[in-house]
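Curious: why these numbers?
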Amino acid sequence: MVIETWERPKDPDEVIEYFILWARPLRTATILTSEWTVLQGSVTVAQSGIDKSRTWALLSGGADGTYCVLHNQIVTSQIFASQNQVLEKSVRLKIKSI
């Protein structure tokens, strides 16, 4: 599992989109499904989706001064493989009043 950190903190009062760019591991594959899970913290995934080689989550809430960890699992179609691939990334996000 890869853990990255989103550089821009999220204000607890805002509803904002964050995304993961999957271009390098995808190569010629297509993202079929994307599932977001909050592993730590109090943010809520209000909506999520797929936009070509990136997955996005619209986040709301969070407690000021804390960190949240979100996990994104995707399933891809693989042109040259016999079965679909499952790829995963986790991302850390600071919650801070702006």
Remarks:
- The chain is about 5% helix and 60% strand.
- The longest strand covers residues 30-40.
- The beta strands are 2-5, 16-21, 30-40, 43-51, 54-61, 67-77, 85-94.
